Amino acid sequence: MRAPVCKSCGKAEWNHLCGGGEKSAEPKIVPVIQTEGPRQDKFDRARYHRDYQKRYMRERRAHETYSVYLLIDPRDDLPFYVGCSFDPKKRAGEHRTDPGAGGYKRVREIHGMGLKCISRTVVRFGDRQTALAFERALMFTIEDILPNRLVNRHELKTRRAKEKEE
């Protein structure tokens, strides 16, 4: 970071001998007013990383899309999970590794048989609310056609209960 410039004499130093703009015979050490923030003697890696992450996420949010995806059982080619995610490929992998993710048991069962779970992106939306509304509508449709098929049908029950209350 560059040292700020003294407003009196124009020197670019942190502290220097200056009369402070006055016509005094005796120069004195005057702290220069910092216009560019605090002095940094060494590179702050954590701050740089934080700023980079913020900038990256701002750029990513500028053209982000939310996807509604299906997890399909390869044994019968029928969907067993409907989800909404910013990154559906990464999220599909989390269903295999994260015990808290919906469909974890079914995905592990499929992988235990030597098969791979099929992930299909159905549609992409520019905002999250529209994607969640479409996800809910798709869950209702699949549940009506194939009752008790979806692993995340407990979400349907709580959503239907909330809709009835409203």
Concise structural overview:
With 166 residues, the chain is α+β, with helices and mostly antiparallel strands. The protein has helices spanning 45-62, 88-97, 104-112, 128-145, 153-165, and strands at residues 15-18, 28-31, 66-73, 78-85, 118-125. A 3-stranded antiparallel β-sheet has the order 4-3-5. A two-stranded antiparallel sheet has the order 1-2.
Q: Are there runs of 5+ residues with pLDDT below 50, and where?
A: none
Query: Compute the gyration radius: what is it?
Result: 30 Å
Q: Please trace the helix and strand order, writing H or E for each element.
A: EEHEEHHEHH
Structural class: alpha+beta
- Order of adjacent strands in the largest pleated sheet: 4-3-5
Please provide the count of β strands.
5
The tally of domains stands at: 2
Largest sheet: 3 strands, antiparallel
- What would you call the shape? elongated
Percent of residues in β-strands: 15-25%
**Mean residue pLDDT:** 76
**Oligomer classification:** single chain
What is the straight-line distance between the termini? 57 Å
Put simply, the count of helices is 5
Q: What's the helical proportion of residues?
A: 40-55%
Descriptive account of the structure:
A hairpin with a 4-residue loop joins strand 3 and strand 4 (78-85). The model has no long low-confidence stretch (mean pLDDT 76). The protein has 166 residues and is an alpha+beta fold. The strands form two sheets. It has a three-stranded antiparallel β-sheet with strand order 4-3-5. Strands 1-2 form a two-stranded antiparallel sheet. The chain has helices at 45-62, 88-97, 104-112, 128-145, 153-165, and strands at residues 15-18, 28-31, 66-73, 78-85, 118-125. The chain is 41% helix and 19% strand. It folds into two domains: 1-41, no CATH class; 66-165. Helix 2 crosses helix 3. The two termini are 57 Å apart. It has five helices and five strands.
